[in-house]
Amino acid sequence: MMPSLTNIVKCSFLAISENEAFARSVAVSFAARSSPTVTQLADIKCAVSEAVTNCIVHAYPPDRFDKPMVEMTLRHFDDNSVAITIKDHGVGIPDIKAAREPLFTTDTTGERSGMGFAIMESLMDNVKVSSRVNKGTTVTLKLRLGVPDC
Amino acid sequence: MISILSNEQTCAGAVTCNLNNGILEVAVSGEIDHHNARSIRAKIDEKLYLCRPKTVRLDLSDVSFMDSSGLGLILGRFTLTHELGGELKVVNPSQGVSRILDLAGTARLITIERGEK
Lengths: 150, 117
Hints:
Number of domains of chain B: 1
Oligomer: heterodimer
CATH topology of chain B: Transcription Regulator spoIIAA
Strand content of chain A: 25-35%
Largest interface: A-B, 24 and 20 residues
Shape of chain B: globular
Shape of chain A: globular
CATH architecture of chain A: 2-Layer Sandwich
Number of helices of chain B: 3
Order of helices and strands of chain B: EEEHEHEHE
Order of helices and strands of chain A: EHHEEHHEE
Low-confidence stretches of chain A: none
Strand order of the largest sheet of chain B: 1-2-3-4-5-6
CATH superfamily of chain B: STAS domain
Largest sheet of chain A: 5 strands, antiparallel
Structural class of chain A: alpha+beta
Strand content of chain B: 25-35%
Number of helices of chain A: 4
Number of strands of chain A: 5
Radius of gyration of chain B: 13 Å
CATH architecture of chain B: 2-Layer Sandwich
CATH class of chain A: Alpha Beta
Largest sheet of chain B: 6 strands, mixed
Structural class of chain B: alpha/beta
CATH topology of chain A: Heat Shock Protein 90
CATH superfamily of chain A: Histidine kinase-like ATPase, C-terminal domain
């Protein structure tokens, strides 16, 4: 049976690096109400930071976009899982499979490690990526919170 | 031994540098993300070019958060230090930093010293 939605929060913010910490704080505040472990909170903080940073670094070349926005939607379900969706309306990812490979990066000037997606996948239960070139990219991070039943 | 800097010099922001006997101790505190990695990088690189140390000890014990931007920062400083004829070690990474370093397999490339603060 699919879990039922119990809470939803939406926010949007300008795709500038100052807002990376803001996005992390919102996600941690949202998840903190659902009895997460300390590690789970840290993992959400890091995974959201990776996803939002990807939008800011890659989605919006400055010469093509005026006021680029990132939309973040946080959902909580009755099985105590959260789904955090981070969406941009930027250039999109032509090859998602390649982008998810460790060490892959298109930014050769900023010392990017190319480990963003690999870290997201390591920390979350599930990471879903959908993208259309010149339409944008949506990343959904899912994690079940709390101490698992033995 | 010649000390280029005084025993303790504090960089602005969240980076503290201390050169002693050719060993540059760099302590970073706070959060390392894409937003602040650039300024942290600039502060460290300024000292690297100025001092050209034989050893850099990058103390990450007071880093409260780090994502893959921090990985890029560490790997970039490792490479630069090597190019300048020295070696870089990561010292006492905090728990959150250790998690990211372990996920990336950083220990295969960079020496990580723990418990020596």
